[in-house]
Predict the structure.
Amino acid sequence: MDDGYLNYRISVHLEFSEVFTHFYYAENTTDSVIKKTLLPTFQTILAFSFGCKATLISKENTEISLDRCLVLGPIKKAFEYALDPGSKILVATFKNDSFYRFFGSVSQGKAPFDPDDLLIENCFSFLWQEIAELDSAEEKVNFILNFCRPYLKSPNAISAFLTDFNNEAQNPIKAVSEMSQLTERAIQYQHKKLFGFSAKEKMRYLRFLKAICYIQNTSEKINWFDVINECGYYDQSQLIHDFKHYVNASPNQYLKFQQDICSGNI
């Protein structure tokens, strides 16, 4: 609880550790609207809203009401969300290719949409009605996990190769192409299809995330040249460009408003 803003992460069972990174619960118990910024995660989220209004706000100040249930992602840039007094949200963050394994398609970063639009039956409307009656966030999470079990497809071999690849010194597309005996163009297509973003986009994001982690774990005054050297940036302008790209703020502005930023990864 932080001045009337209750928020915490909920870990998932080992069975679903390759499907969801975690669930996130937030509740506004104050008398005022609370605004937060969500950092990019390069994953897709499934958000449920209970109680009073919750709103998503784009960089262009376009507002979208979170009514019951929405899918958004992959989240490649930061955006604001606002919780009215009495608002409660529960957010599931899909891991790696798991959104594709559920729905057989990736949203490619388009505007939020109702997950029922991806399916023939209105099962997510039913799901919201069921979990809205449950008291605790943990009960809601357990119900969601049991509900989604029959819909999950097994990962394919290419997805497993790409997910497990962790050699920073190699190009993942080239390496997986050689392992799978498929062309690099075919692997690039599969990467975009399964994850919703290219390998090049992901590598740039991981560099930015490394910088964020470095900042979060440093208790002393930040030396930006240390961040540049530790995180693989060429110079200060490249670091600033990434902060502007992902969070629409300079590194110093990020530090100033850090307490109002929520991360799906850290």
Q: What stands out?
A: The two ends are 19 Å apart (CA to CA). Residues 211 and 227 are 6 Å apart (CA to CA).
